[in-house]
Design goal:
Elements (H helix, E strand, L loop, with lengths): L1 H13 L10 H62 L2 E10 L19 H11 L5 H5 L7 E2 L8 E12 L4 H7 L5 E8 L12 E9 L19 H12 L3 E4 L15 E9 L3 E3 L2 E10 L6 H13 L6 H6 L15 E7 L1 H7 L14 H23 L1 H6 L11 H10 L18
Parallel strand pairs: 3-10
Antiparallel strand pairs: 1-3, 1-4, 2-3, 5-9, 5-10, 6-7, 7-9, 8-9
Helix pairs in contact: 3-5, 6-7
Length: 436
């Protein structure tokens, strides 16, 4: 291009004007040459224009591509934001009820399929319903999971509480329950503070123990189980003995885990009583309620077992007072069947956050009817039918005669070494730092 322009200027300078006298044949050649030059210049200009236009098109295409990428990225981010808005992760508590028969307690043993637990079914339902990612089910710490009470093998619950972080999907309770067996139900859900821990924030736990009333019949009486009825005087005696447990005492004799001088063996019992008897399947039953700050392994079952031994005439009433001393006392452990976690209490949390306008108090008055229905459908029938078929209480009562309720500490230690019971491995009645 530069050479062409230079050549044209050179020709223009070296030749005469077309109208001069020297012009002739050379002028015609010049005009022809100039015409060709003009055509060439026009062609070059046209090509340059086309190149410029193509460059603009390319630039526009590139810009459109960048814009499309931005639009797609923005759209993706908006979709993700919309999804998060629809199902954000929040800290919640779930109110659970379950029949514990056939399960090795509440607490999950990750990596062990030999002993099925309630939490195995719960975590599976949470994953399948879309409330938690699958890797959260494999590592429960990722969802900040915590149970309020670790119930033992075969123990049921009407008011278990677990805290965790989940995606708040639509119809969350229905979707979780759709993936649970009918004997495990989620009855309620509440939002809680981000740092809430159902175990650490729990002030107290209430358990019930359902038993056939013939357990209180005197050992010298000839009792037919199905016709026995608890009289008023015996019920009053039972409640008088149960009331002795109220307050703070050293319960080292009511667990295999504590020594007499272990400070953590001291536990505070708020109330303990036996309700009025009632008939089920032609057998009379009664329910003992106990509310305490926390319980150690086997504590509740031993508390009840010792009262039964006294009422039946195997032990003196003074043994309760003696059991709180440093001396080792032989305390029988009542069967696990019949023990139910009724309620967990959060009074301190409710006073601080229950009426702050952001959080709900952890109370379940609206769920009371559902709890009662579940107990009637799944918990009570399981206890009654198992008692009728396996006679766990009747069989245990026959072992009371082999206990020596007046033996010395040395004799007790020897007996314990010689008669370790495999049922001691069942776990804890309650759930605190000692029993987990």
């Amino acid at each position: 291009m530069l050479r062409l322009r230079w050549g044209l200027r050179a020709v223009s300078r070296g030749l005469s004007a077309p109208g001069s006298a020297a012009c002739g044949g050379p002028c015609r050649r010049l005009r022809s040459f100039l015409t060709m030059a003009e055509d060439l210049r026009a062609a070059v200009a046209s090509q340059a224009k086309r190149l410029s236009s193509s460059s603009e098109v390319l630039e526009r295409l590139e810009e459109n591509g960048r814009q499309n990428k931005r639009l797609k990225r923005d759209a993706g981010e908006e979709d993700a934001e919309d999804q998060n808005k629809k199902s954000p992760k929040r800290k919640i508590v779930l109110l659970m009820a379950y029949s514990g028969k056939g399960y090795h307690g509440m607490q999950r043993n990750v990596g062990s399929s030999q002993f099925k637990t309630i939490e195995d079914d719960l975590v599976s339902a949470l994953v399948q319903s879309g409330c938690i990612p699958e890797n959260h089910g494999e590592d429960m710490k990722k969802m900040s999971f915590q149970r309020c009470a670790r119930t033992d093998k075969g123990v049921s619950a009407a008011g278990q509480i677990v805290s965790l972080k989940v995606r708040l999907i639509d119809d969350i309770l229905e979707k979780i329950n759709n993936h649970l067996p009918s004997h495990i139900r989620i009855l309620g859900l509440k939002r809680v503070t981000g740092g809430f821990n159902s175990k650490n924030k729990c002030d107290a736990r209430t358990y019930s123990y359902m038993l056939p009333t013939f357990a209180f019949a005197h050992k010298d009486d000839d009792v037919q189980e199905e016709v026995y009825r608890l009289d008023k005087e015996t019920l009053e005696k039972v409640n008088k003995l149960l009331a002795c447990y109220k307050g703070t005492h050293n319960f080292h004799n009511f667990t295999s885990q504590k020594g007499p001088r272990d400070p953590s063996a001291k536990r505070y019992i708020m109330e303990m009583y036996c309700g009025e008897p009632f008939l089920r399947e032609d057998i009379e039953f009664a329910v003992i309620k106990v509310k305490g700050q926390s319980f150690m392994m086997h504590q509740i079952r031993k508390m009840i077992g010792l009262v039964i031994a006294i009422v039946k005439g195997y032990a003196a009433e003074s043994i309760i007072e003696r059991s709180w001393g440093e001396e080792k006392v032989d305390v029988p452990k009542a069967p696990g069947l019949g023990l139910v976690l009724e309620r967990v209490h959060f009074e301190k949390y409710n006073r601080r956050f229950g009426n702050d306008g952001l959080h709900e108090p952890l109370e379940w008055t609206e769920e009371e009817e559902k709890i009662a229905v579940f107990k009637e459908q799944y918990i009570y029938p399981t206890i009654i039918n198992t008692e009728r078929e396996e006679k766990s209480m009747a069989n245990w009562l026959s072992t009371l005669s082999i206990h020596d309720f007046s033996s010395s500490a040395v004799e007790m230690q020897a007996n314990n070494r010689n008669s370790k019971n495999s049922s001691d491995l069942e776990g804890s009645d309650g759930c605190d730092d000692d029993s987990d």
